[in-house]
Amino acid sequence: MRVFYPIFFAVLSMVVIGLIEILLIRVLNKEWWRYKPIKYGSIMLPIAGIISDILWFLGMAHEIEWLAQTGAVMTTTILILLLGLIISLPISGLLNLSNRWIEKRKKRRFLKETKDKTAPNCTEKINEHRRLFLKGTAAALPLISLSLGSGGIAGSFSETKVYIRKMAFENLPSQLNGLRILHITDSHLGIYKHVGHIEEILHTARQYSPDLILMTGDIADELELLPETLKLVSEFGAPYGVFAVTGNHEYYRGIERFKQIHKDSPVPLLIGAGQTINVNGQSLYIAGADDPRSMHGDYVTTLNKSIDKSMENAPSDSFKILMSHRPEAFDRASELGINVVLAGHTHGGQMGLGDRSFFENFSPDSYLWGEYSIDKAQMYVSSGIGHWLPFRLGCPTEAPIIELVSK
């Protein structure tokens, strides 16, 4: 039954957001409501969304994969477009209101000038330019929001970036210089991403010859896809193996089943634990933090306790890498002398500007996407492979290959 919750939520959202969109046009943008294409289009958009929800439900209920995927993609696409409209339409409404006020003022002035038989002055021309500007801007805003929404949707289906990202360290052991780590996170295999996407990423990554593969959670929302995924990744043949940690979605989908799948696979699951690897005579310690499950409350304390536990058996002379689904682990990791943290969870906010999350402008102290450093510790937060909502604007999906190099 829980698998249908997103569908029920989508139906409710579609009805509420669709009604808001219609009201915003009907009440705030009265001039547009007179045009039949706009009037009927605003009504048909949420109706199309509800029909898409029904297709999604039928596909899930009868286990018709292509129908469920089509319905899900159509539903989320329409929701994104509706959200863009309800953001832009109030602003357009205010501009149209200003335009109506100018029109009324213009009419009163015209009647007065006609009565007084006086010639129109230059103020009339200024007001006319202002009126045209307001009218054009009001019409442009919904079109811009629809364009950005469409671009973000298209971006979510673009090919995942697989590339080398160098991280430089002082006093890096020479044996580790050039070590390459394929970082896989947040693929959310299910509706929008499939095992085939992982296969494509591995195929592209092969040309870079990664030495190690680390998976930092939220790999499969449909756990039946996980065994094949782990088999694919393990058969890639990374010289120093594959390791994984939990994400919050592993708990949402059934942690005991998830653990059993890993137990039956060749991919070790590190939950508050670590493992030492010998790399050309140099000790490399891979630690894994458990996910605190909660999205609220003091979950950082729970996360920190797991980090402490994962480091209990770390050799003092080892180079230390921590896998953590959540980037909030970085503060504690830097205190413990961990060299590298690889994290995900944020999806980069799914909106980026200049290779950083757009939302860092509002939360500069957050770890959202990209490289961060505290003293000698460094962290890379990947924007991930997948998403729970197919929208990526300026923040592409990625599976970076971290290369350790000496400064």
SSE diagram, text form:
Layout: H1 5-28, H2 30-33, H3 36-61, H4 65-116, H5 122-156, E1 164-169, E2 180-184, H6 195-205, E3 212-215, H7 226-234, E4 242-244, H8 248-263, E5 273-279, E6 282-288, H9 299-310, E7 319-323, H10 330-335, E8 340-343, E9 370-374, E10 377-381, E11 401-406
Parallel strand pairs: 1-11, 2-3, 3-4, 6-7, 7-8, 8-10
Antiparallel strand pairs: 2-11, 5-6, 9-10
Helix pairs in contact: 1-3, 1-4, 3-4, 4-5, 6-7
Work out the helicity level. Answer: 40-55%
Strand content: 5-15%
Number of domains: 2
CATH classification, class level of the largest domain = Alpha Beta
Q: What is the tally of beta strands?
A: 11
**Which overall shape is indicated by the principal axes computed on the Cα atoms?**
elongated
Count helical runs.
10
Low-confidence stretches: none
In the CATH scheme, what's the topology name of the largest domain?
Purple Acid Phosphatase, chain A, domain 2
- Euclidean distance between termini CA atoms: 54 Å
Q: Secondary-structure element order, as H and E?
A: HHHHHEEHEHEHEEHEHEEEE
Radius of gyration: 27 Å
What structural category characterises the helix and strand content? alpha/beta
